[in-house]
UniProtKB/TrEMBL annotation:
Protein species of origin: Lutzomyia longipalpis
Membrane topology value: Lipid-anchor
Name of this protein: small monomeric GTPase
Any one Pfam family match given in the protein's UniProt record, by short name: Ras
Entry-linked SUPFAM superfamilies: P-loop containing nucleoside triphosphate hydrolases (SSF52540)
EC number of the protein: 3.6.5.2
Keywords from the named record: Cell membrane, GTP-binding, Hydrolase, Lipoprotein, Membrane, Methylation, Nucleotide-binding
Length: 252
């Protein structure tokens, strides 16, 4: 199912400069940035995950995002200014609404960078296996996140896209793995063209967000019982109902 939204959660409403919207988003997740409660729809338990796509121009951020959301391949390069998409999914038995911000890789469009760095709960840093410079830039994006968020403990997934272009490969798998272990994050080599490891990248990021959230709750003194309650069977079922209800509402 495809939807698009404004990704304004927790930020002062940023103007969306370009949109591939097909549906307006509902009320879910307009209540603020931090904490489960604030990112959970008032009408149900559908948790919104704010995800930001980062990486050099032309590495395939939009193609990866569109392949995830619409299951189609973007053949041409139309430099992004800023687009946002929403996609529902059930991940590990729990419904989720992924609110994805596809950002600009071209330097002339990167003025909003700090702002969306502040808003994202999880980041996908993308480089192309055919482009050595984009691989080097991945470290710069990592540094930027750390600088803006003042922490290294941010949910992150590193992806090496254009896996299908083997004859043009300029970055080895091993180099990608090493960089991911430096970042302390999961790593996938993806192909937006062939739809390889696209869902995995997004789902893994949601898992990373959930994991860090649980750790944060524990360190904030919440009882394990409370966390368990959140992840309990009933809560999962409720979240799936919320998703179905939401779909129906959009169909009507
Ligand atoms: N063969 C192949 N081509 C890809 C893949 N992903 C993207 N491309 C192509 O690479 C070009 C750039 O893709 P985009 O998704 O627009 O790149 P981007 O990172 O969003 O670029 P900016 O918006 O300028 O930052 C397009 O022509 C895509 O068709 C892939 O996995 N395989
Ligand atoms: Mg783009």
């Amino acid at each position: 199912m495809k939807m698009a939204g404004d990704f304004t959660v927790g930020c002062t409403a940023r103007k969306k400069t370009k949109s591939r919207s097909t549906e307006k988003r509902g009320s879910a997740g307009n209540e603020g940035l931090s904490g489960i409660q604030q990112n959970t729809s008032k009408s149900g338990a559908l948790r919104v995950y704010k995800i930001v796509m980062l990486g050099d121009g032309g590495v395939g951020k939009s193609a990866v995002t569109l392949q995830f959301v619409t299951r189609s391949f973007l053949e041409f390069h139309d430099p992004t200014i800023e687009d946002s998409y929403q996609q529902q999914a059930v991940i590990d038995g729990e419904a989720a609404l992924l609110d994805i911000l596809d950002t600009a890789g071209q330097v002339e469009f990167t003025a909003m960078r700090d702002q969306y760095m502040r808003c994202g709960e999880g980041f996908i840093i993308c480089y192309s296996v055919t482009d050595r410079h984009s691989f080097q830039e991945a470290s710069e994006y990592r540094k930027l996140i750390t600088r803006v968020r003042l922490t290294e403990d941010i949910p992150l997934v590193l992806i090496a896209n254009k896996l299908d272009l083997q004859s043009q490969r300029r970055v080895t798998t091993e180099e990608g793995r090493l960089l991911a272990s430096e970042f302390g994050c999961p790593f996938y080599e993806t192909s937006a063209a062939l739809r390889h490891y696209i869902d995995d990248a997004f789902y893994t990021l949601v898992r990373e967000i959930r994991k860090k959230e649980a750790q944060r709750m524990l360190s904030n003194g919440s009882s394990t019982e409370k966390i368990f309650q959140k992840r309990s069977r009933w809560w999962r079922i409720r979240s799936i109902f919320a998703l179905v209800f939401r779909r129906r509402r959009h169909l009507n």
